[in-house]
């Protein structure tokens, strides 16, 4: 059966409201770190989404079924890193491979940008997300007690 969604770049006017709702409903409640109200304003979240690269899983009608937001970070004398900032899928769209497809496409983007690895943080207690990333090849490399998060890491082979 063909997927009933496509992965495409973020479109500000079309996608912002749905992505903001997903962040507030699906991601913010799982965070162990206190999130100030100002961090969840439309302006702050929209500015965050517009940094880096955001990909959207869109249904046939154009509705947002999920999204991933990543940033490429580089420092002098350090490898280029793909930082997975946020990934969320609508609850009624889970189990259809959307999260996996978004993650795969983000990793492809990272390889294209010469990233040697991908990393992300998973909040303590978010066992479903932790298992999802483990299945995708990520490994826990450290626990951050002050954040109550696990840092996960996956080597990427850059495109030559």
Automatic annotation (TrEMBL):
It comes from the Bacteria. The keyword Cell division does not apply. This is Diamine acetyltransferase 1. Gene3D superfamilies: 3.40.630.30. InterPro entries: Acyl_CoA_acyltransferase (IPR016181), GNAT_dom (IPR000182). CDD domains: NAT_SF. Residues 5-157 form the N-acetyltransferase domain. Its EC number is 2.3.1.57. GO terms for molecular function: diamine N-acetyltransferase activity. It comes from Thermobacillus xylanilyticus.
């Amino acid at each position: 059966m063909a997927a009933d969604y496509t992965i495409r770049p973020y479109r500000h006017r079309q996608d912002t409201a749905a992505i903001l709702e997903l962040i507030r409903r699906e991601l913010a409640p799982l965070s162990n770190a206190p999130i100030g109200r100002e961090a969840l304003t439309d302006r702050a979240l929209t500015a965050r989404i517009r940094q880096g690269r955001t990909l959207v899983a869109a249904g046939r009608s154009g509705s947002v079924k999920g999204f991933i937001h990543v940033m490429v970070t580089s420092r002098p004398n350090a490898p280029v890193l793909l930082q997975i900032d946020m990934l969320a899928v609508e609850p009624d769209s889970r189990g259809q491979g959307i999260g996996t497809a978004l993650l795969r496409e983000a990793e492809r983007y990272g390889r294209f940008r010469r990233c040697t690895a991908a990393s992300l943080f998973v909040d303590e207690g978010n066992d479903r997300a932790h298992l999802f990333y483990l299945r995708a090849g990520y490994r826990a490399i450290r626990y951050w007690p002050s954040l109550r998060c696990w840092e996960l890491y996956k080597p990427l082979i850059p495109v030559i």
